[in-house]
Specification:
This protein is of the alpha/beta class and about 190 residues long. It has a domain of about 120 residues: 3-Layer(aba) Sandwich (Rossmann fold), CATH 3.40.50.2020. Strands 5-6-4-3-7-8-9 form a seven-stranded mixed beta sheet, with helices on both faces. Strands 1-2 form a two-stranded antiparallel sheet. β7, α5 and β8 form a beta-alpha-beta unit. It is globular and about 45 Å long. The relative contact order is 0.17. Bound molecules: adenosine monophosphate (AMP). The site of adenosine monophosphate (AMP) has 17 residues, from β2, β7 and α5.
Length: about 190
């Protein structure tokens, strides 16, 4: 019997999904037992692959469909800054509690154990600015949901949401509905 290649899928097609899949490392039991950490550092470190992924995200949404890019701390910053540069727009960080120096809006959400809080500067967006939100991994969707709320509270309009990798079995996409999710790779 011939072996069927492992099926890879994502919202930008199998080639992009394969590109991401080939440059992600599974790290079992990090940061705690039972979690398989999806390490995308090999993708970030590969110039050609990183550029292809960034260009695909810009093309998917359309260069003129967003005015600013939001990156979620910390790995989202890497992707957001590259997309912003490629599209010729600015970048706004959404940070963990207590890191921003000026007046900020905060949104808290439940983690498996305890709670997390994200913040954005109150003056981060010009009213009505269209905001593309990006992160590395979508798991339960709590982080993304809090971020999308923060963007709207700070006067932005969410124009799109992209992740490099989605853990489909955690149903983050359903939690974020009706916000569409663009995931380059879904596992
Ligand atoms: P969640 O709020 O559950 O969707 O978790 C998403 C956030 O946690 C993202 O900012 C990810 O960087 C990080 N994250 C959650 N699970 C993983 C994982 N298995 N591998 C890598 N990062 C993860």
């Amino acid at each position: 019997m011939t072996e069927t290649p492992t099926e890879v899928r994502g919202d930008s097609g199998p080639l992009t999904a394969q590109l991401v899949a080939s440059r992600v490392l599974d790290v079992p039991d990090f940061p705690k037992p039972g979690i398989v950490f999806k390490d995308l550092m090999p993708l970030f470190a590969d110039g050609a692959a990183f550029r292809a992924v960034v260009d695909e995200i810009v093309d998917h949404h359309g260069r003129d469909s967003f005015d600013v890019v939001v990156g979620i701390e910390a790995r989202g910053f890497v992707v957001a800054a590259a997309i912003a540069y490629a599209a010729g727009v600015g970048v706004v960080p959404v940070r963990k509690a207590g890191k921003l120096p000026r007046a900020a809006y905060a949104a808290s959400y439940a983690l498996e154990y305890g709670e997390a809080t994200l913040e954005v500067h109150q003056d981060a967006f010009t009213a009505g600015h269209r905001v593309l939100v990006v992160d590395d991994v979508l798991a339960t969707g709590g982080t993304a949901k809090a971020t999308l709320e923060l963007v709207e509270r700070a006067g932005g309009t969410v124009a799109g949401f992209t992740v490099l990798l989605e853990l489909g079995f955690l149903k983050g996409r359903e939690r974020l509905a009706p916000q569409p999710v663009h995931a380059l790779l879904t596992v």
